[in-house]
C-alpha cells in the first residue's frame, strides 16, 4: 500500500502569499479605478450637457426666443433659481427631482456644490442616475445673462472636488442671439487651442476656473486623455 504524503502550507507561507496578493492589488486597483473614471466621466458630462441643451431647445418651442425668458437677475436667489428651473427645465426632463432644502442630505449636497458661505440652502436637483446639479447667476444685465451649472456626476460620492467629480457648465444668453451652453466657465471664450484649454484646466484654482476642465474634456471629443491633470 502506497503512502500518500500531503504537504500543507505553513501559516507563514499563507501570510506571505496574502501579502503579495495585497501588494499587487494595491498597485493595480488605483490604475483600474482611474481608467474607469476616465471612461465614465466624459459619458456623464456629455449626457448632462445634451440633456440641458435639449430641455432649452424644447422650452424655446413653448416660450419663444430665450431673449424673452425670465432669467434670474439676482445672485444666489433660491426663488428665482427655482422659478427658472420649474419653467424651462423640469417640464422637459424625466428622472429629475428637486431636493428639499430642509433635508440635511440636501443641505450637504448644496454645501458641496456651492461651497460654504451660507449656500447650504440653495436649490439642488437630483437625476435618477445619482448625479446632481445646482445653478447660480453671474454676469447678468439687461443685455446679457449667464447661468452657471455646477454638476456632480456622483453627487455626495467622494471626492467632491472640482475637476475630479464636480464640473461646471454655463449658459450665456445675449440679446438678439440664441443662448449657447458652454462646458467650463466664461474664460474658455478666450481659449483657441488645446494648449489653451489644458492651461485653464491646470490652473483651476484661479478665479472663475473651478470645474473648467469640462471644457478640455469637450474639446478632446468628450474624452479624458493621459495628460489630464486631476485624475
From TrEMBL:
Keyword Glycoprotein: no
Coiled coil: none
Superkingdom classification of source: Bacteria
Domain DUF6613: 33-229
Pfam family, one: N_methyl
InterPro entries in the cross-refs: DUF6613, N_methyl_site, Pilin-like
Keyword Membrane among record annotations: yes
Transmembrane segments: 12-33
Keywords from the UniProt entry: Membrane, Transmembrane, Transmembrane helix
NCBIfam families for this protein: IV_pilin_GFxxxE
Protein name: Type II secretion system protein
Amino acid at each position: 500500500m502506497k503512502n500518500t504524503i500531503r504537504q500543507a502550507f505553513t501559516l507563514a507561507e499563507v501570510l506571505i502569499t496574502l501579502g503579495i496578493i495585497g501588494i499587487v492589488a494595491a498597485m493595480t486597483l488605483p490604475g483600474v479605478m482611474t481608467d474607469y473614471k476616465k471612461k465614465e466621466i466624459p459619458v456623464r458630462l456629455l449626457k448632462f450637457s445634451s440633456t440641458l441643451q435639449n430641455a432649452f431647445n424644447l422650452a424655446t418651442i413653448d416660450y419663444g426666443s430665450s431673449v424673452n425668458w425670465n432669467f434670474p437677475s439676482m445672485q444666489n436667489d433660491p426663488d428665482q433659481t427655482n422659478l427658472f428651473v420649474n419653467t424651462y427645465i423640469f417640464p422637459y426632463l424625466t428622472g429629475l427631482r428637486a431636493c428639499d432644502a430642509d433635508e440635511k442630505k440636501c443641505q450637504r449636497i448644496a454645501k458641496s456644490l456651492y461651497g460654504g458661505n451660507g449656500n447650504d440652502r440653495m436649490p439642488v436637483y437630483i437625476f435618477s442616475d445619482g448625479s446632481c446639479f445646482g445653478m447660480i447667476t453671474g454676469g447678468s444685465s439687461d443685455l446679457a445673462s449667464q447661468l452657471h451649472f455646477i454638476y456632480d456626476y456622483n453627487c455626495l460620492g467622494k471626492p467632491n472636488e472640482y475637476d475630479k467629480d464636480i464640473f461646471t457648465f454655463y449658459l450665456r444668453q445675449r440679446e438678439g442671439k440664441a443662448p449657447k451652453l458652454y462646458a467650463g466657465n466664461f474664460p474658455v471664450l478666450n481659449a483657441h487651442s488645446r494648449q489653451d484649454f489644458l492651461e485653464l484646466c491646470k490652473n483651476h484654482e484661479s478665479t472663475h476656473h473651478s470645474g473648467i476642465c469640462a471644457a478640455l474634456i469637450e474639446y478632446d471629443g468628450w474624452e479624458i486623455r493621459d495628460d489630464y491633470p486631476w485624475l
